[in-house]
Every structure is written in structure tokens, then in C-alpha cells.
Automatic annotation (TrEMBL):
KW Transmembrane helix (keyword) present: yes
Keyword Transmembrane included in the entry's annotation: yes
Example of a GO cellular component annotation carried by this entry: plasma membrane
Membrane-spanning segments: 35-53, 65-81, 93-110
Official protein name in the record: YnfA family protein
Keywords: Cell membrane, Membrane, Transmembrane, Transmembrane helix
Annotated compartments: Cell membrane
Organism name: Methylosinus sporium
Family the entry assigns: Belongs to the UPF0060 family.
Membrane topology summary: Multi-pass membrane protein
Major localization class: membrane
Length: 112
């Protein structure tokens, strides 16, 4: 694979927010006292997450999942800020950046 296409980037971003949204629905029920009705859209969101990861342009599922980890971490920091209203600090930003660099290395590193 010589590069990461737009479809892969969209799949990763969509998967990240689908997973975070799905997990947050469960968090909201278990930790915030929200109605159990939150679980249905949460489950659908987790289904969308798994389906989106199959759209990643790579020949190995494990590589797609490993690189996704970096995207997930960065998206989680954005969620922290946008949804939960907690401003990320410099350590959040530095950590997310390091993880994104790792994701790029996993996807674009030369293979023998």
C-alpha cells in the first residue's frame, strides 16, 4: 500500500466516533443514570464501528485495528472537549499526537 486514501481516513474517523458514541451510551446508562433506551442506539453505533473498520485499505485486519488505535485516542480527546466539555491539556494533545504518528507508521511503513 503506497498511501492511505480518503476512504480509509473517513472509515477511521467514522469508526472512532461510532465506537466512542456507542460506548458513551453504555457509560451514560451505567454511570450517569440515563434511561436503558440509550442502549439500542449505542449497540447500533458499535455495529457501525465494526462495519466501518472493514472499509480500511489494508490487507491485514490486525494492521487496520492497530492503526485505528491511534485514531481512536485522538478522537477520544476531541470527544472529551466537544461532548463532555473538558478542555484537553497539553499532555492529552501530546499523547494523541504520538498515537497518530504511530498510526501513520503502522499504515505507511515500508514492508519487505
Amino acid at each position: 500500500m503506497s498511501g492511505v486514501g480518503a476512504a480509509t481516513l473517513l472509515a477511521y474517523v467514522g469508526a472512532a466516533f461510532a465506537e466512542i458514541g456507542g460506548c458513551f451510551a453504555f457509560w451514560a446508562v451505567a454511570r450517569l443514570g440515563k434511561s436503558a433506551f440509550w442502549l439500542a442506539p449505542g449497540a447500533l453505533s458499535l455495529f457501525a464501528f465494526a462495519a466501518l473498520l472493514t472499509r480500511v485499505e489494508t490487507e491485514a485486519a490486525g494492521r487496520a485495528y492497530a492503526a485505528y488505535g491511534g485514531v481512536y485516542i485522538a478522537a477520544s480527546v476531541l470527544w472529551l472537549w466537544a461532548v463532555e466539555g473538558v478542555r484537553p491539556d497539553r499532555w492529552d494533545a501530546i499523547g494523541a499526537t504520538i498515537c497518530l504518528i504511530g498510526a501513520v507508521l503502522i499504515l505507511l511503513g515500508p514492508r519487505g
